[in-house]
Specification:
The chain has 312 residues and is of the alpha+beta class. The chain has three domains: 95 residues, RNA polymerase, RBP11-like subunit (Gyrase A, domain 2, 2-Layer Sandwich); 121 residues, RNA Polymerase Alpha Subunit, Chain A, domain 2, CATH 2.170.120.12; 58 residues, DNA polymerase, domain 1. Helices cover 24% and strands 29% of the residues. The chain contains seven helices and 14 strands. The strands form five sheets. It has a four-stranded antiparallel β-sheet. It has a four-stranded antiparallel β-sheet with strand order 5-9-3-11, covered by helices on one side. A hairpin with a 5-residue loop joins strand 1 and strand 2. Helix 1 crosses helix 3. It is elongated, with a radius of gyration of 39 Å.
């Protein structure tokens, strides 16, 4: 199997703490770069777990169309700003961050007080502007998840009226682009390819970690296929024994019994093995004397027919 190399050729950190990593993977056989790029991009964009704000509580507010006295932004603007917060939670449970700010003040993500399980990535992310003589009390609920989760309107009855739910974008990867370049020709004249992968994260995860997690998810997906085994078909009939291949003529039956069996399409011992004693009696013109004769003939070669169908 062709061995390839992975190089990170660039890493940039933006003003909003987002990270951009550029990886070059190669050399690969023709077609492998596209296959690898498609699979990694799909998992990076939709399969990685991230952190997002799922609900907000604002002091003195019970619906999203209200305004907060002394705050420049209305409630909808505050909710949108909270939705843009970049956080990283290590807890599987819902974490809550709180703040109480007296104006005048520019409220940012750094003002939120969380447990040690939650890290605020971009503390300069704006939330609201409070005027002098006024205050803002805020509570944000943070969860871990995968992909995008819209607000479930049907569950509002079970939620406190002043807890404003927002749709959550958990995806830590913002953008993934890949391109395929041809490299030197390998042995036998076969072309080689190189995959260039550009990964942009929101800063809660490095591009290196994102690529590693995506690769591990693909490995876990394909691993069962690598050890697949086909079970033997238990319904397959066993090989017929030598006795079952004996033709009907060699049983030395009487002419009457022989002719009746032939008319019933019985041509060999294997055909008789599907009958019981009761089945023999149902053959036209086949009496108990002929049935006993067949039973004795089969017993001479080590084959015993059941007395009835139920005992078969």
């Amino acid at each position: 199997m062709l061995q390839f190399q992975i190089d990170r050729v660039d890493l940039q950190v933006g003003d909003d703490r987002s990270q951009t990593g550029v990886f070059v993977i190669g050399p690969l056989d023709r077609g492998q770069a596209t296959t690898l790029g498609n699979a990694l991009r799909r998992v990076l964009m939709s399969g990685l777990e991230g952190t997002a704000v799922t609900a907000v509580r604002i002091g003195g507010v019970n619906h999203e169309y209200a305004t907060v006295p002394g705050v420049r932004e209305d409630v909808l603007d505050i909710l949108l700003n909270c939705k843009e917060l970049i956080l990283s939670s290590r807890s599987r449970d819902t974490e809550i961050g709180r703040l109480l700010i007296n104006g005048p003040a520019e409220v940012t993500a750094a003002d939120l007080q969380f447990s040690p399980q939650v890290q605020v990535i971009n503390g300069r992310s704006p939330i609201a502007t409070v005027s002098e003589g006024h205050s803002l009390e805020l509570e944000v609920h943070v969860e871990r998840g995968i992909g995008y989760r819209p607000v479930e309107r049907t569950s509002e009855d079970t939620v406190a009226l002043d807890l404003l739910q927002i749709d959550a974008v958990f995806m830590p990867v913002r953008r993934v682009n890949y391109s395929v370049d041809e490299t030197a020709v390998g042995e036998g004249g076969s072309a080689r390819e190189r995959l260039r992968l550009d990964i942009v994260t929101n800063g809660s995860m490095s591009p290196d970690d994102a690529l590693a997690q995506a690769a591990n998810q693909l490995i876990a997906l394909f691993q069962p296929l690598a050890t697949i085994s086909v079970a033997e078909d238990l319904s397959q009939e066993p090989e017929p024994s030598a006795e079952s291949q004996i033709p009907l003529e060699e049983l030395n039956l009487s002419v009457r019994a022989y002719n009746c069996l032939k008319r019933a399409q019985v041509n060999s011992v294997s055909d008789l093995m599907g009958f019981s004693y009761e089945d023999l009696l149902e053959i036209k013109n086949f009496g108990s004397k002929s049935a006993d004769e067949v039973i004795e003939a089969l017993e001479r070669i080590g084959i015993t027919l059941p007395q009835s169908r139920t005992s078969a």
